Write a sequence for this structure.
């Protein structure tokens, strides 16, 4: 079992940058596919980006492609979400998640993940 804690959220102006961190304890993140999701009020939780174990392949939602980057530091047992060129529509609570079993499509849907952090608020002002 792994415990995830996000940090790094806050208030930023449009066009600015933030880096979110997801620190893990209890287990090595090497064993998991990692994903970032976000949820705005009244909207379902949506996929933002992911990084697969081993291959380190990253995938992104079209809405953030070219602006957001997912990476991991195995030595620190931490996954990051670097966000740049932020837009007001990026405002949401951001969650990291860890998935044990990979199957087709598992990275892009919340049901594909087993463990979740508590979330961190990102607010982008116009």
């Amino acid at each position: 079992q792994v415990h995830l804690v996000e940090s790094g959220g806050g208030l930023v102006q449009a066009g600015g940058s933030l880096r979110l961190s997801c620190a893990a304890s209890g287990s090595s993140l090497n064993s998991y596919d990692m994903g970032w999701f976000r949820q705005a009020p009244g909207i379902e939780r949506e996929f933002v980006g992911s990084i697969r174990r081993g291959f380190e392949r990253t995938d992104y939602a079209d809405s953030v492609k070219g602006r957001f980057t997912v990476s991991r530091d195995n030595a620190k047992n931490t996954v990051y979400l670097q966000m740049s060129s932020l837009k007001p529509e990026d405002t949401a609570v951001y969650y990291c998640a860890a998935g044990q079993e990979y199957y087709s499509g598992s990275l892009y849907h919340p049901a594909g993940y087993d463990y979740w952090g508590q979330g961190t608020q990102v607010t982008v002002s116009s």
The chain has a mean pLDDT of 96. The chain has no helices and eleven strands.
